[in-house]
Write a structure and sequence with these properties.
The structure is a homotetramer of 451-residue chains. Chain A has 451 residues and is mainly alpha-helical. In chain A, 64% of the residues lie in helices and 5% in strands. Chain A has helices spanning 16-22, 25-28, 32-48, 54-73, 76-83, 88-100, 113-153, 171-196, 216-222, 232-237, 240-267, 294-315, 327-354, 360-365, 374-383, 388-405, 415-420, 430-449, and strands spanning 156-161, 164-170, 199-200, 227-228, 274-276, 356-358. Chains A and B meet through strand 1, strand 2, helix 8, helix 10 and helix 11 of A and strand 1, strand 2, helix 8, helix 10 and helix 11 of B.
């Protein structure tokens, strides 16, 4: 039984090397369960339209449930590979026909691969957006939990800009800052999730709709969409939700890569702020002493890779005529590859994060390096009436002298005093940081429950 | 008067070639009016905190309004260029000091370039997201208006996939499909607009907050934000809104590039579906007969360029330590460059669209080329009880015969009959298309009014 | 037996999910035979340095040859997967140890994964650059062969710019033009091939060289390199050859995508210039009449994908500290993925090209559409003393009139006359085209034989 | 006088906003002197072909020399901007016509914008490839000079991989490693330079050659090309040399970004290895003590930006039909923008490099941190007969104990001993490093003199 779903007008055989080249099976095996769901809804639409009778419908449902079990059990993947199917949809179609005799011939009635792929992809996007939202949320939560611990411990450190010491802050304040991008990432995923549940393409046919009286409202409802899509031609070529999800994924991994970079830097003995547990460290095949923070380096590199992959996915669409072109298969494969890679990367980040421990002592020891209290001294002058420019210049000169003499700026003023002196909402002052953490905890609790 | 806002601790002079290299002035001149707005809110915060008295505040306000007028009048740009400022913020600061004597020294009290840039950028993003939303909306509207015209005219054509004739459709149906991505683009811009109005970074200082008791709530409110940002360190390095806008812009231009590609194709005599008016056509310096659809080719190329530029902007962030690094200046410049380029590109697309006219006659003449009614014949067999696979194979063989004989498939069945035979919501059947157009018109009317 | 090549200082076990995340096994299985070659040279270097005796050396050689046979026979891949190795190098090391008892412990003496990976990768690059050069060459050859055929047939057509008819040309001239980028692509591959044979990294250790007296000259020679690399630290982190190859691959696929686009366009009935044979065409699951040029659409999309992938590979290096960082594993994987994808894409392009046939009649019929002889008429005026600007304007006006009247420009002047009137070397005049084809044939014959 | 070089067949006026959108003037002003050179060669070709007489030729030469002087003197840019020209070529054409009366009408005889742009661009590429080669060479030279200094000083340090201490090395060895990528970059530029001097497109017309008997050999020779290009259609759309140069530029900046990253890291007090002089440091508008390594951060960010820009340039070509499409204007603009940005970035890198000073004392103090001699201890065991795996495991365990006890690994063995113990060519041993530096100096001297 061939897996090809077309061919009546062709005399010669297709070139098998070209079929292989055109196959997206490997990339879209993850779509298998969603295709089954989509096909079950189509069976209902066919039955409701009177295109197939209840007997055929029952047979098809039985076959689809059997395929679903094969997918879950792991038997389907080797089947599909052995078949040499063009894609996962063709492989499921072939398997259904094997399992259901003549009824199987009716599964594809009034359906094109175009509306089938578009619908299946949306179901996948919805599910992956939901799990990605949970992942972003749990990363934010893990960082905030650490912020709370460090707030209790009162750990102080020098925050940097340009890798140069800037001002003393609480480590809790820094950790709270690190959690924020993941909160925004979770919101981005939630937005994709909502958008992907709006319009159901099923019943759009190849591009013009169908001559069979399919009940699109019913199919949309069965699949959890708010409504059928408005225009068949737009619906079958629309990859916006998949791209939106891919984009949100890339952004979240970029966010993770920034924290990863800091943890790699802080793991160096020069800083010594971080020790990465054995579970997440890697050795060297030659140098016996090595303890390398590989997972965080890989997170960093995956961010760069995914940025390129997303550009590649978008580039397939530049100047591509509207409606379906085969290029969209590559767009789809790229989007899926990005989503799955990001899923693995964020998962690895989360696991490696759990192996991080902070050296409070090393941080505190370095908190005043680099004259980090200079801004406080300038602020004090300003509060006493000196103009900011004048204050900046005077303290700047004082730093130059202190540096030349190897002296401290003002021995009476320490990191904790600097931190406590902050007076604006959102600052590193302990009370403000406590408020931030509480607010984050509240927001994360809300995000948890809603779509 | 130097434009540099720092320097007290430095002995040697900065290398002017390096200062030039580091200047972002050209890229961020578009931020000038937004910096003034931001600075006015900071003056209010300083006054309210008692850092400056009402006299200084009034002087600063006067100077800022004067700068605003210079910006609007065109005098500011040459001033800033002549000054050799590092960026537009430094140039405005310098000009305010020129205009306000000693008071000018106080404008930067309790403020860092970091929170100033972050705030100004958000104000810019909000405004550009709003105008981009309007632009996407008006493009969608212009296409839908044309769809309505063609619906009345009843123009039929062959819709293609893979550039091969697929099925007969109404031109109105195709145009309605073309408008949909712009409706989604407008929603994407609306989303950015809302997000960019949430949190105000002003008062975050360099990264830790300020020792001066600035009223951040008041500043946030004055600038139209819902609230001050939660964490100073996150706020000063957060470029998410600018990236979200850049991304939405790239996507909208990619959408436009797809329609542009079709219009370029259809302008070729081989199709002859489109004639582009003189206003939007270009000739050749050598070939006197040429009439080239350059604006649409450029739209297509700008899409590709912007995809790369967005990848470049994201790549600056991969593995960049959290908090402020100078790299963020390039991120910002890239985001602005993308937004401004997309603005020009979508504007050009809209103008060139107005010069498009369709040749109904050429379209209709080709509507049955390529056996576009084959699906209808197969659907008829299915409706009469033949299985879809069998029907597909039989009509496929019939096509092969007809092609070999140079004959038509079924002379009694024409494009209009095919179109009328569609029975699913969202199809190309005239009644469905009428519904789609009405729905689009309603949705566009709503988008128009809301943020 | 564990596949990890390190661990002495570690107390806790590595997290297996993180090991999975960090594994590059799937991506670098293609390196397996090259690693064996590299390891054989290392055995010789160890023996020559007296680090191992001839018995151990013989045992190791035997084991490596056995592994080589397993790789060729297909048994090695499932072995490596079952092992859960970090990469292919670890898997081969583990298998050698299984096969060679105590001697196996010595294979890695004086070698780090760093110099091993760098060397293996260069061997891979050399081989793939060579086969890619042959591929580019054979594509150019296939196009030139078709050019010669069409030259004999004298096929004429309208060449376009901006998809608008420009001037009549010989199809042979156009095909000759299409072959040129592949000639340049072959040169680019030849350049990579030469560069990748220059310097051998083996013996560089982790980064500082080795304390064992390894004979690097001998190893370099055994592996076909001109010399050992100059600086160990540079050598172990140098991915330039792999990136150069990836880049040459991307460019070649972009070149192919441009021809592919034209073939897709010309396959549309509107042009009808090209018919794609059944072997390379694809049908539709819904529309029985479809004959889609999918392979060429996929080539087009792979170009876009690869452009993004290359950007991703380069982005992993931006701001990456010199020397080895784990990020380089992702750089390597990306480079390999690009090379293998391009290999498949160019192979598919070549196969699909063989299924292309041209409709001379359709081309000739359209050769004068769009007033393509206007330039000739203008040239004639110029030759007779009219200034080019004046001539351009006059013929332009004549075109406008002819278009309005639906008339031809000059019935006495046809496409062949236009073509024959060209008088510059490199033109579309038949004699010039004959020269071009001869020159291409000569150049391709030379490229064939040299590295 | 209009700057448009076409228009005879057009009735309506072009939309000025669309002309603005389509103008590439700003991007291609750098091409101005090269266009003049190209035009002078075209005048010679016209004269030699008898299309124009010696009087017209002399007038045109005079006008072109006058324009050249205006370009050099700065007067041309404001002229071109005021004119609102489509591109620099149109602006020069317009100016020549102003300066030369009727003769000016003849400059464009037998020439299309297509061959003119292709030729001008190659001349630009050649010049920029040459200066980029010199720049890469001088950067390599500056680093090697510093390596020689540090070799004399005998500075030792801990080389890292994964930012973890790996092995002691000479700073001179590390600097020699840093210079190598710039040597390769110079070779890449040399290759572009050679390729760009091969084939001259002038005389290719719009795509088919010219009906005027232009002497292409003479023009090629006059412009320093080896020969006229082979095929007119290929020649006018060929942007390979510009892309090759853009690519070589991107790669060189990526190389620079890696050294820049290290210098940023080493400027942090945690390392203290580098002090950046005042000339290249930047302060903060708020924090008076700051001394930020901005130029190196910007180099890093420009690398990321350029990677994206190159992807964008290539993406404009994906699926673009062969021959000239207007999209190529954006390809060209992007290539130029990349080249000019890279030029500025490498220039800034070179200047900032001169402001770098190394703290030998801080480096030496940290050379043994992280048990960097562990590999030497393991090597010693191997040399004494212990298998490498066993040796690795034993020293690994010893490291774990030493770390727990806060003890050194082997007090009798220091960094210098470790360095001296290396026995492979290319290692960090002082004699090897001396050889490397000598070899680099020789190679750089050669690169200096050849194309």
């Amino acid at each position: 039984m061939t897996a090809l779903q077309w061919g009546g007008r062709f005399g010669g055989a297709a070139d098998s090397a070209l079929l292989d080249f055109g196959s997206s099976l490997e990339e879209d095996l993850v779509l298998a369960p969603f295709d089954v769901t989509c096909s079950l809804a189509h069976v209902a639409a066919l039955e409701s339209a009177g295109v197939i009778g209840s007997e055929h419908a029952a047979t098809l449902r039985g076959a689809l449930h059997a395929v679903d079990a094969e997918i879950a059990g792991g038997a389907f993947t080797p089947y599909a590979r052995a078949l040499g199917a063009e894609d996962v949809h063709g492989a499921i179609d072939a398997r259904v026909r094997e399992l259901s005799g003549g009824a199987g011939e009716w599964l594809h009635a009034g359906r094109s691969r175009n509306d089938q792929v578009a619908t299946t992809l949306l179901l996948y996007v919805r599910e992956r957006a939901r799990t990605a939202r949970h992942r972003a949320h749990s990363i934010a939560g893990a960082i905030v939990a650490r912020a709370r611990e460090e707030l209790e411990a009162g750990t102080v450190m020098a925050a940097c800009t340009h890798r140069q010491p800037a001002q003393p802050v609480l480590l809790a304040f820094m950790l709270a800052a690190w959690s924020e991008p993941f909160v925004r990432a979770a919101q981005r995923f939630a937005c994709v999730e909502r958008d992907a549940a709006k319009y159901c393409p099923l019943g759009s046919g190849a591009l013009a709709g169908s001559g069979l009286p399919l009940d699109r409202e019913r199919a949309a409802q069965a699949l959890g969409f708010a409504a059928p899509s408005r225009n068949a031609l737009d619906a079958i070529g629309n990859r916006d939700a998949a791209l939106d999800l891919a984009h949100a994924c890339v952004r979240a991994v970029v966010d993770a890569s920034r924290v990863a970079e800091e943890l790699v830097a802080w793991s160096a003995p020069a800083y010594g702020y971080v020790r990465l547990g054995d579970a997440a460290s890697t050795g060297s095949s030659l140098m016996p002493q090595k303890r390398n923070p590989d997972p965080f380096e890989l997170v960093r590199a995956h961010a760069a890779k995914l940025v390129g992959a997303y550009a590649g996915a978008l580039a397939t669409l530049c100047g591509l005529a509207p409606s379906y072109q085969r290029d969209l298969q590559v767009t789809k494969s790229q989007a899926i590859a990005i989503v799955e890679d990001a899923r693995a990367t964020l998962g690895a980040f989360a696991r490696a994060w759990d192996a991080v421990s902070f050296s409070r002592e090393r941080m505190e020891r370095a908190a005043l390096d680099g004259f980090t209290i200079a801004t406080d001294l300038a602020d004090a002058l300003v509060a006493a009436g000196t103009s900011p420019r004048e204050a900046h210049a005077r303290i700047g000169a004082q730093v130059a002298r202190a540096e030349a003499e190897g002296a401290a700026l003002d021995p009476s003023f320490d990191a904790r005093a600097s931190i406590a002196a902050k007076r604006t909402r959102g600052s590193t002052a302990p009370g403000d940081v406590r408020d931030q953490i509480r607010s984050l905890e509240r927001e994360l609790a809300v995000v948890e429950t809603r779509p």
